[in-house]
Specification:
Elements (H helix, E strand, L loop, with lengths): L2 H9 L1 E2 L5 E2 L1 H5 L4 H14 L7 E5 L4 H11 L3 E4 L11 E8 L4 E8 L8 E9 L3 H13 L2 E11 L4 H7 L4 E9 L6 E2 L7
Parallel strand pairs: 3-4, 3-7, 7-8, 8-9
Antiparallel strand pairs: 1-2, 5-6, 9-10
The structure holds guanosine-5',3'-tetraphosphate.
Function: Converts the preformed base xanthine, a product of nucleic acid breakdown, to xanthosine 5'-monophosphate (XMP), so it can be reused for RNA or DNA synthesis.
GO molecular function: xanthine phosphoribosyltransferase activity
Keywords: Cytoplasm, Glycosyltransferase, Purine salvage, Transferase
């Protein structure tokens, strides 16, 4: 098991056959040392890609994205899910439907922070059905920026997002891929990036 798989095995809680709770280090409390290692790993994987910007989605994507941005020495833009008081004009927007939460959010990024000169790495905490990543890709496309890949902290390999994106020819690097959550146990797919 890599460092992330070990952390998930030690602290992850299986809530159902499809939902893993990792509130102790990723979705509520954040483990800075772990985030730093995650950032180093993504930076290593994408070091030759000429990335100029990392794009993520609030809120849990921000910690791993910032650590990666620190390593790659590039800014991090997080798409907002709620309308901002100060962010009203000049936005790229996309609709993201969450099957897990049964809600649709409009996500947006200011045109000031994403341009056709950008080479983008999309980062997110979880990959389930891929809707969040597709929404972020829509925004990257609207800006005319170039997407070089997607970095995911935890991919749920038994849901369709990973396959959907890889079939589109997108480079997806997941640091842990969960094969199943049956019988209250987490099992990992061996194809996760080994670190
Ligand atoms: P999708 O984008 O891949 O289609 O995912 P989906 O709609 O199913 O997930 C919506 C939200 O639920 C996302 O967080 C996603 O990260 C999270 N999520 C999905 N599956 C799991 C899981 O098994 N465990 C945990 N802990 N989270 C999961 P979000 O609403 O953007 O939340 P946050 O970033 O504000 O924390």
């Amino acid at each position: 098991m890599n460092f992330l798989e070990q952390k998930i095995a030690a602290e992850g809680k299986v809530l159902s056959e499809s939902v893993l709770k990792v509130d102790s280090f990723l979705n509520h409390q954040v483990d800075p040392q772990l985030m730093q290692k995650i950032g180093e790993e993504f930076a290593k994987l994408f070091s030759d890609a000429g990335i100029t910007k990392i794009v993520t989605l609030e809120s849990s994507g921000i910690a791993p994205a910032v650590m990666t941005g620190l390593r790659l020495n590039v800014p991090v833009v997080f798409a907002r899910k709620r309308k901002s008081l100060t962010l009203v004009d000049g936005l790229y927007s996309a609709e993201v439907h969450s099957f897990t939460k049964r809600e649709t959010n409009e996500i947006s990024v200011s045109k000031d922070y994403l341009t056709s000169d950008d080479v983008v790495l999309i980062l997110d905490d979880f990959l389930a059905n891929g809707q969040a990543v597709l929404g972020l890709m829509d925004i990257v496309n609207q800006a005319g920026a170039k997407l070089v890949g997607v970095g995911i902290v935890i991919e749920k390999g038994f849901q369709q997002g990973g396959q959907l994106l890889r079939e589109k020819g997108i480079r997806v690097e997941s640091l842990a891929i969960i094969d199943s959550l049956t019988n209250g146990e987490v099992t990992f797919k061996r194809e996760a990036t080994h670190v």
